[in-house]
Amino acid sequence: MGEKVVATNRKARHEYFILETYEAGIELRGSEIKSIRSGQISLGEAYVRIENNQAWLVDSHVAPYEQANRFNHDPRRPRRLLLHSSEIRDLWNEVRQKGVTVVPLKVYLKDGRAKLEIGVAKGKKLYDKRASIAERDARREIDRELRRRD
Fold first, then answer.
1. N or C terminus: which one in the chain shows less Cβ crowding within 10 Å?
2. Residues 73-111: tens digit of each pLDDT
3. Residue 16 CB coordination number (10 Å)
4. Which residue in 43, 22, 17, 34 sits closest to 125, CA to CA?
5. Which residue stretches of 18-122 are H helix?
6. What φ, ψ does residue 137 adopt, rounded to 5°?
7. Whole-structure pTM value
8. Which residue segments constitute the domains of the chain, with CATH numbers given?
9. Alpha-carbon gap, residue 119 to 18, rounded angstroms
10. DSSP code of 109?
11. Which of 57, 63, 58 is nearest to 40 (CA)?
């Protein structure tokens, strides 16, 4: 059936070096999947917390579904991530290192189920961000020149 990207955390790749990525399912309630299918999810301030051998997506905003009225959900509730226990253990060992965190990268639909791509990330310094921007601009300029020649 394929994948349909619903939301991305564009800020994450700018703010962090992504060291490793994982695919996690999201435990949803009621009308949350309908909101996600319509693109009503925000990962802007979201992060992943690991506690009691479980991974949680915290501070993501899933907008209430209009037609669900009184059966709606709390938009900012923590959502459990569905990962293998070995993956959670690996994430926990990575997070214990200084300067390493786990950030959500994108939400997508795969075979009708909502999946979250999470990344083990290390924060960038200001000069790293500047270098990334300069590299991206240079690449864009090269592509522009190549298109002009054709």
1. C
2. 788 899 999 999 999 999 999 898 888 999 999 999 999
3. 21
4. 17
5. 32-37, 85-95
6. -65, -40
7. 0.82
8. 3-124 (2.40.280.10)
9. 6
10. E
11. 63
